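To whoever is on call:

I kicked off a structure prediction for a single chain this morning and the downstream step that reads the tokens threw a length-mismatch warning. I double-checked the sequence; it's 241 residues and nothing unusual in it as far as I can see. Pasting both halves so you can look.
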Amino acid sequence: MWNLLIYDDDKLFLKQFRKQIIDTAGDIIGNISCISDQESFQFHLEEKFCKLPCIAIVEIKFKSGISGLEIAKQLLSANPLAQIIFMSEYQNYSFDVYEVEHIFFLEKPIKKESLDKALRHADKKLQRLQPQVLPIVTRTFTVAVPVEQIIYLEKANRKINVFTEERTSPYTFYAKFSEIEKYGTVNFCRCHNSYVINLKYIKKMQGTSFYMINGAKIPISRNKYQDAKECYLRFLQRGDL
């Protein structure tokens, strides 16, 4: 599922729009960050979240005078894979958006059909752009593992164990989750600081654990429980089994 950033200085709108997005395309959207001021945005740019393939919905005209076009340029500079969607209630601003690469323009009040079309388009573009294999490099071998064959990844100190459907033992190599998260797919979910799972390989969710088809029992941390549960429910609703 894709990370989503919304930048608008109307906090009430952000709250309502967040719910609209979940209701409209919750099956493809994971974490949602609602930004309403420049300080929070600058802090967000430094977070690894912003470095991952993501979707950003940005207001064009802010009451404070901030330019949404400049915001979009900063986002693309930090993350060239970001899919930019502009929004505004001012139709005369719609022509200015062509100064910045974007995929859609939403006119406020935002209709469900337009929002769904914009997010699905972003999803398809990201699916095409993202890497399809995870390169694993060690002192003795190098292999490209198809990401769709990965059941889950486990962090063990400075090493990552990659469990796949093709092997009984994991691939093990030195890396950080932050370095390999970009290779994940819409079906990947981080349910614990030490685990990233592929939703399509879950046998069941019970209590605070995911039970995988290879017999592994993966813990769900308390602070990630709600997001992990929602991700799994959206995956099931999508029916991509």
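Update from on-call: the warning came from a stale cache, not from the record. Cleared it. Sanity check on the structure: The chain is about 30% helix and 30% strand.
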